[in-house]
Design brief:
It comes from Pseudanabaena catenata USMAC16. Keywords: Membrane, Transmembrane, Transmembrane helix. One of its GO terms (biological process) is leukotriene metabolic process. One of its GO terms (cellular component) is membrane. The protein is mainly alpha-helical. It has one domain: Membrane associated eicosanoid/glutathione metabolism-like domain (Four Helix Bundle (Hemerythrin (Met), subunit A), Up-down Bundle), CATH 1.20.120.550. Helices cover 81% and strands 0% of the residues. It is elongated. The two termini are 17 Å apart.
């Protein structure tokens, strides 16, 4: 595989990391706004939602990043880029909804989860298929 074919998934990786970094800055801003100083993580519902978005995104990135790269290497880097971009859009939608009200996070979560499942099961399918059809 030519290294140039992996440039787009690399860009998606960096954008996902930038989104995560931005969410972390949001936690810092919310700490000041709601007067929740470290190490506290509770005390104001608005702060807690901002904090949970950041933490949940970290929890999801642990699954997302390997799936993005495995899919891009073993299936198709262009489709990996598309699905990775959809995941990012879903996470942004999740954050935006959750900031407004906890119950409004579902649509963004569903979008990101479907993209993640496509990456995961697409890779698994292609790897298993490769065992039988070399």
């Amino acid at each position: 595989m030519d290294i140039k074919t992996l440039v787009l998934p690399a860009i998606v990786t960096l954008v996902a990391l930038l989104v995560y970094f931005g969410l972390g800055i949001g936690v810092g801003v919310a700490r000041v706004k709601y007067k929740i100083m470290p190490p506290q993580t509770t005390g104001n519902e608005d702060f807690e939602r901002v904090y949970r978005v950041h933490q949940n995104t970290l929890e999801q990135m642990i699954i997302f990043l390997p799936c993005l790269w495995l899919f891009s290497i073993f299936v198709n880097p262009n489709w990996g880029t598309i699905l990775g971009s959809v995941w990012i859009v879903g996470r942004i939608g999740y954050a935006w909804g959750y900031y407004i009200e906890a119950s409004k996070r579902a649509a963004g979560n569903a979008i990101a989860s479907l993209a993640l499942l496509a990456l995961m099961f697409g890779t698994l399918f292609n790897l298993v298929r490769g065992l039988f059809y070399v």
